[in-house]
Amino acid sequence: MLSILSFVFPKEGIQINTNLFLRFPNIKTFLKTEESKYADISEILEYHQAEIMENISDLSIDTLKNLKDSVYNIADSLIAEMPTDTLAEEKNYNDITTAKQPGSVLQQLEYPEGNKNVLYPFFDHLRNLNQSGELIRILHYGDSQIEGDRISSYIRNELQKEFGGSGIGMFAPVIIKGTNISMDLKLNGSWERFTMHSIKNRNIFHNRLGALMSFGRFAPINSFDNKMFFGEINLHKSNITYAKTRKFKQCRVFYGYNEKPFIAELKYKENTLDAELIGTSKQLNTLKWDIDGSLDEITISFKGEDSPDVYAIALDDHSGIAVDNIPLRGSSGTDFTKTDLAFLRSMYQKINAKLIIMQFGVNLVPYAVDDYSYYEKQFYKQLKTLKGLRPDICILVIGVSDMSQNINGRLVSYSNVVKIRDAQKNAAFKAGCAFWDMYEAMGGKNSMPAWVNNKPPLARTDYTHFTWKGSVVISKMFYEALMKDYNEYLKNENINN
């Protein structure tokens, strides 16, 4: 009877109401004997065997295993803003072939019309670091795929080994609990975090979010009762991160827009190392302390009737490379132009930003649409705007990773992953940015289950996020592609000189 019912039941199901369908599986589903065909990633696993097996101070701990990506319906908000026109009149780059060479596990960087010069301003700064002695910043923006300092931390460590520098970089004073393993951060006081959601919900009446797309306060906005507020940020070196991350030499606090003076103190345990009375401000300012690299913890203490907007804390060296991990949970990378761009430009200038890495896409995948030209246009607008903030800033887009869904008991790639990847690549090329195809680097279609099923697992069982070991593997693939082109740049410069 069930077999007969399976033959006559409508394939598309019966609609009960607007949101509910009644479906019955076809008997052919049960009679199928073929196994799901996942991508063959054996060459990737063999090439990166050392990274898969090594355990750097327990870095294999998957700190995100209990965290869910609290994706609000970003796709719906984007779709609501779909333009009626498309990018059809602009050049289309979808016909560009994969950058992975036959027989190679290296997924190369791709460039608009093959023009590798788009990264040369950044490469110039790398080459001249020994002479310039400057500290240059790489801002790594992304979604939940980079939470926990995943991917960023490996890139940071390798670049600092090669070009100098130390420290975790720049981070928000108030972060989502459990999303950073490279520094133990504890807060005391009435801290509150403000983000793009705060602007949309009208909890704040300005859009100065700064480079981290958020800020924190230890006192309420518009407090008029002369009450004294305090806030402390205790920073302790993490034991489960790279050694260079734990050897910072300076601490800077980026703040501004406080209506009343406040006191800022730097403490080591219970001892005050420095204290300053900070006056009122209507602009972005920097509070700086030199740090003894042997200190295993510091506390930044604030007290006042009003709090400044605290945009970032940076733990860096005085020179070399700083790489900032900036996860924007629930984002698809389309909110930058909704912030105060003049303020963002001033912060980019103050922190000496030279490269922006943009890594988004997983929040779009579960909400499939037929046409992603709307996203391509919005993402292009972000890239073009950010590139225009500073004359020598470069942008490198990392495309969306593979993601799997369960279809009749089989794990297959979401059908729209390639469409989103293509939209990101088109936007990157049209904006004059480099592109790295993470989807192809992983192995392409149906590669995520192979990463999940590996021993040890390289991706989590949500078939979306990498484990720590998986993030190290994918980071190394990206880093090797970046350094390949940097070394090619050096060779060309030597020939020309």
Describe this structure in words.
This protein is α+β, with helices and mostly antiparallel strands. It folds into two domains: 38-165 and 320-497, Rossmann fold (3-Layer(aba) Sandwich); 167-318, Jelly Rolls. The protein is built from 15 helices and 20 strands. The chain has helices at 2-8, 27-31, 42-47, 49-53, 74-80, 120-127, 129-132, 152-163, 196-200, 341-351, 373-387, 417-430, 438-442, 448-453, 468-496; strands at residues 14-17, 20-22, 135-142, 169-171, 183-189, 192-194, 215-217, 229-237, 250-256, 262-268, 271-278, 284-290, 297-304, 309-316, 320-327, 353-359, 394-398, 404-407, 410-413, 434-436. Strands 15-3-16-17-20 form a five-stranded parallel β-sheet, sandwiched between helices. Strand 16 (353-359), helix 11 (373-387) and strand 17 (394-398) form a beta-alpha-beta unit. Helix 8 (152-163) runs parallel beside helix 15 (468-496) and helix 11 (373-387) runs parallel beside helix 12. It starts with a helix and ends with a helix. The model is unreliable at 56-76 and 83-97 (pLDDT under 50).
Cα gyration radius (Å): 24 Å
Count the E strands: 20
The low-pLDDT segments are 56-76, 83-97
Strand residue percentage: 15-25%
CATH class designation of the largest domain: Alpha Beta
Q: Which structural class should the secondary elements be placed in?
A: alpha+beta
Distance between the termini: 82 Å
Overall geometry comes to globular
In helices, the fraction of residues equals 25-40%
Taking the sheet with the most strands, its summary is:
5 strands, parallel
Q: What is the CATH architecture descriptor of the largest domain?
A: 3-Layer(aba) Sandwich
CATH fold descriptor of the largest domain: Rossmann fold
User: Widest sheet: strand order?
Assistant: 15-3-16-17-20
Identify the CATH homologous superfamily of the largest domain: SGNH hydrolase
Overall pLDDT score:
87
How many H/I helical runs? Answer: 15
Number of domains: 2
